[in-house]
Amino acid sequence: MLGDVFTFVSGLYFRGKQTYAMRFAAPPDPDNPIVGCGVHVITPNAGLRTPDTYVTHRALRAFADAEVDPANAVYRRPFEKSARALLREIGPDCDVVLLGSIASPKYVSVLLAIFGERLRFPIDFVGRGDMSRGGLLLRRAREGVELDYAPVAGAVLHGVRPPKLPPIKWAERA
User: Fold this and answer.
1) Residue-wise pLDDT tens digits, 34-46
2) How many domains does the chain have?
């Protein structure tokens, strides 16, 4: 499944994103689409997909060969198409939370153009690197404490690096 593959390839950062998203995202409800947006993964050439999407070896090779750049139509077109489909599905009352870096335009430029003010991100991500964001997400998922979100539009893209997260003791990991 896509989520498992990305977790294996990316390690802590994606594992943190997926664990946190699965803990706090309201699952989609076919009888009431306003209830939840579900969890989606940005792929390099297939747009947004759910973490339980099965992928083949061929698809993985295509992911590896794709350039994640908004100027690349192979990346941008399926991403835009699936984001617009998601926008139609979720209706006007569901915000979209990006659990990725907002400092890079590779995701933000596409998502912001489609979701506008509804595109949000965890404010605690400002100033953190990938691994720190992954660790923060895993800790919050374990604690059952959702992060605070802010609109991506107009957000500060770079900030002061926050203090390092305290290490997790082995007894706490279980």
Assistant:
1) 445 689 999 999 9
2) 1
